[in-house]
What we know:
The chain is an alpha/beta fold. The chain has a single domain (3-238), classed as UDP-N-acetylmuramoyl-L-alanine:D-glutamate ligase. The chain is built from eight helices and eleven strands. Helix 1 packs across helix 7 (194-206) and helix 5 packs across helix 6 (145-156). The longest helix is centred in the last third of the chain and has 17 residues, at 211-227. The chain is globular, with a radius of gyration of 16 Å. The protein starts with a strand and ends with a strand.
Amino acid sequence: MKTVLTISALDPSGGAGANADIKTAKALSFHPCSIITALTVQNSRNLFSVHPAPPEIIKEQFFALLEDFEFSAVKIGVIPNSEVATAVLDCIKKLECPKVLDPVLFASVGGKLGEKSAYELLMPEVSVITPNYSEAKVFGSKENPEELALELFKKYGCSVVITGGELKGRDIVCDKGKIYSVEAELLTGSFHGTGCVYSSALACYLATGDLEFAVRKARIFVLESVKRGFRVGKGWLFVNP
């Protein structure tokens, strides 16, 4: 069984973050190893606070895992500050596998999660980033999604997938400078955890194929996960990978 490493925050509601990463990896027949970058206080309606993990503990966890496991892919989610980013950077530099970064700036339920400058430290070291359109505009200046994806590729040196939740279901891909789109049905509604599920699925699929293969498979995986979505709390629906 292949192993994927997830480096992300803990969502105690179980809808996003490490919980969504783990569920996605298991659904795709990967064994998930998980390092927590931050503890969050949130539920299905609100994000109340974010508490970064100690950077030295992140590194200790990583090197303990590294001496025992071989990773086929890495997914990185919430990075709450530059200190955590530096620790994560020191870790992922040791790996040769595909690395996916989801630069989560805000929680779907509202509230700030990650730092722009922290993600920028990591972008030159990863294979691909997966911002939504609003997040992508924080890192670039173009309004046109295709031009924006190319701008981010040239700026940070990694491939880019601008996920299509705000683009009528059309994901915009800049694959090492090549621009194309991936389209699928877009379901209406407010869903918690879609970005986490997408980036984790993308990491798993990159362990077995190229980026174009992975983005097409991940897009369908998310669609099916949203179709199976359910309401467990009083707020947003949870995706169900």
